[in-house]
Amino acid sequence: MWSEADKTGAEPGDRRSMAVLVDEALGYVFSAALRAVAAVGVADKLAGGPRTVAELAAQTGVHEGSLHRVLRLVATRGVVEELDDGRFRLTELGQALRSDVPLSARPAVLMLTDHTLWLPSGEMERCLREGGSVFGGIFGMPFFDYVAQDEQTATAFHDGMASFSDAENRPIAAAYDFPELGVVVDVGGGQGGFLLEVLRRRPRLDGVLFDEAHAVAGHRLAADEVKGRWQAVAGDFFAEVPRGDVYLLKRILHDWDDEQCVTILRNCRRAMAPGGRILVVDAVVPRGNAPHQAKTLDLLLMSALVGKERTEADFARLFAAAGLRLSRTIPTDTMLSIAEAEPEP
Ligand SMILES: C[S@@+](CC[C@H](N)C(=O)[O-])C[C@H]1O[C@@H](n2cnc3c(N)ncnc32)[C@H](O)[C@@H]1O
Q1: How far is the CA of 344 from the centre of ligand 1 (A)?
Q2: For FRET with 194, which of 63, 67, 178, 287 sits at 20 to 30 Å CA-CA?
């Protein structure tokens, strides 16, 4: 009797491993299909109910045969569902791809699969061999310079960031006991979604949204409930930041190397009123092998930017180098934690 190994030269377990690794290697094709579906706006066309592929192709102006093949793959992970009559419908998960729902994931999907992140992650082997970011080699300049030089790229980035952040802003704002009075400065605050949540919770607090001009131009602080309590200031956090009592650095330090982080932190410390605080809102990478989104985002930060996701000990070291001390780390109901820093006496 021939054993499995005799016939093929491989144990059955090896073939299973082979199949698993081949599936893993093909994972990027799903991301590409999800991007394609998001980009042409299929979910919006399915909002009113199931449609045939011919109808969807006509409404989105794309190739019918190709759309069917893309939808067939996207259906395997429950974003859409193919019905027995051949029409496709949007699942509950897929509703989040619509552009008109409150927590739309569409801008985030488009930002995370944009060529500015996609191409560098495809060159990850070069990051391993040479160390550091490959963005400059591909695009000829650093990430944020590239974002700033083209209005369409800037809009896609800031809309994507805002969509990415929308789901986390409220639980993070709820996790910290903000003072009743004073000025909160959201450093690199993008379109101001997080600052808006903080100001909503504290009706006597004032806020400053501080970011590059192309980001603050698209601010979302025009809500009546915060009227007269905020300013939008364009500037460079490597040069100086506005005066305030509480500094928010949400998803900022992870974009930069240690030396650059210390410069940003020192600038906040210098501008801070006595008794002030800095709240670094970033992932704190856990030890061990369990999956964590920060471990994936970390590789985008490695290949496209010059930053990284950090551990609690990393934050404590950065703070010490900037004349600050880590007073506490507060978990939130999101993947991010709040590392609170206060000036060393
Ligand atoms: C990853 S985004 C985070 C945005 C926002 N805090 C959030 O959590 O959604 C980084 C932000 O830093 C801003 N930024 C990058 N370089 C900057 C600089 N030199 N000065 C001020 N803002 C900068 C970007 O425009 C962007 O809005």
Answers
A1: 26
A2: 287
